[in-house]
Amino acid sequence: MDPVRNPYAPGAGQRPPELAGRDRELEAFDVVLERLARGRPERSVVLTGLRGVGKTVLLGALRSAAVRRGWGTGKLEARPDQPLRRPLAAALHQAVRELSGRNPDEAAEVLGVVKAFALRASSEPAAATTGSRTRTAPKMRDRWQPGIDVPAAVGRADSGDVEIDLVELLTDVAGLAASAGRGIAICIDEMQDLGAEDVSALCAACHELSQQGLPLLVVGAGLPHLPAVLSASKSYSERLFRYVRVDALEREQADRALRSPAQEEEADFTPEALDALFAATDGYPYFVQAYGKAVWDVAPTSPVTAEDVAVAAPQAEAELAVGFFGSRYERATPAEREYMRAMADLGEQAGDGAVGTAEVATLLGRKPQSLSPARDALLKKGLVWSAERGRIAFTVPHFGRYLRRHAGE
Fold first, then answer.
1. CA separation for the pair 34, 401 (Å, rounded)
2. pTM assigned to the model
3. In a 3-state reduction of DSSP, which class is residue 241?
4. In whole angstroms, what separates CA 170 from the centre of its chain?
5. How far, rounded to the nearest angstrom, does the alpha carbon of residue 308 sit from its chain's CA centroid?
6. Is 196 exposed, middle or buried (0-12, 13-18, 19+ CB in 10 A)?
7. Given 3.40.1260.20, 3.40.50.300, 3.40.1280.10, 1.20.120.1200, which CATH number is that of 23-245?
8. What is the rounded CA–CA span in Å between residue 213 and residue 153?
9. Which of 254, 271, 281 is nearest to 16 (CA)?
10. Statement: 332-405 belongs to CATH 1.10.10.10
11. Angstrom distance (rounded) from CA 409 to CA 394
12. In 82, 189, 225, 303, which residue has its Cα 20 to 30 A from 242's Cα atom?
């Protein structure tokens, strides 16, 4: 079939033509927005799930829902090597600009607070004698400017203590939104990569704003262990956020994700082709898009048949092996790869679910303590996650299958 008309989109965070299986989440978010608009209390939202289940896509859809209601919105992607101040300031700069038309003078004042927050940095060198951390006077970073063309505020969100500053900043931003009869939605992708200090400050700020009833909503997305990260920071985070698990699509939803875009292009799939595609993808949205694109390109005519799927499968698997699996595998050291291969071997009997860390050590003939550095590094790189103490699983669906197929390469 015509590759130019291929409707499938297997890109990182790229919205598919048919956002199947997420209607319930979108409807629930509309309720949250409406309640906040009416001054009702609501919790911020955290999306969790494995890689490739569409968290980033859903995060974008939720942001779009807020935009349609006239809210100010901003989005950032957390990185383990970057503090929260600058990316959050950039996101809030955009959100405030979206609201500035209703009250430009107040918006200018709030932008001054955003700028002060962005420019303030704190230095906490380790004490030489005791090993404790000693806070020193905050400094201004003169070489970097956040692109906000108003003077930085003085005495607001500029103390250098990120928790104090964040509470003040978000209170002012949310106050602007309330004055405009709107709200603010801050979307944070890869939220598990925030530093511990920033996580604690964000939880404290959300807690304070919820008590004040201000219309500001944090919408986070991250790996399955994100709730544990938040809980370790603030015990009340379990009640502060509404956790939404984003999982693979059910059969009917996966079929809709394939058929609806095809039907828009006057094409379709046979039932046998859909059977084969669901068996290959397990309903994971990224895989659905990857296989859908490959099958469309090899199928000579509509409807797509099971034979077309069989021909296209090696091509889809090869592309996933390079772009989805291989790029992550290459980030691992030899010791980390050995650990992951052992996980994959154990997972073959466990249905590629979580495996015991003690079992990994036994398989490798090593003491569990000696494998801790490799395990901890894989956790930090986001390649594995710990569902419970003593058990570990891949964050990437089908990763164990990939490692078994490419063993020894």
1. 44
2. 0.90
3. strand
4. 21
5. 34
6. exposed
7. 3.40.50.300
8. 25
9. 254
10. yes
11. 20
12. 82
The dihedral formed by the CA atoms of 36, 38, 40 and 44, expressed in degrees to the nearest 10: 0
Token representation of residue 170: 């978000």
| Residues facing residue 140 across a β-bridge | 120
3-state secondary structure of 45: strand
* pLDDT, tens digit only, all 409 positions of the chain: 999 999 998 877 788 889 999 999 999 999 999 999 888 889 999 999 999 999 999 999 999 999 999 999 999 999 998 999 999 999 999 999 999 887 889 999 999 999 999 998 643 433 333 333 343 444 444 455 667 889 999 999 999 999 999 999 999 999 999 999 999 999 999 999 999 999 999 999 999 998 898 999 999 999 999 999 999 888 888 889 999 999 999 999 999 999 999 999 999 999 999 999 999 999 999 999 999 999 999 999 999 999 999 999 999 999 999 989 998 999 999 999 999 999 999 998 767 789 999 999 999 999 999 999 999 999 999 999 997 889 999 999 999 999 998 865 5
First to last CA, the chain: 35
Domain coordinates of the chain in residue numbers? 23-245, 250-328, 332-405
Fold matches, 23-245 and 332-405: no
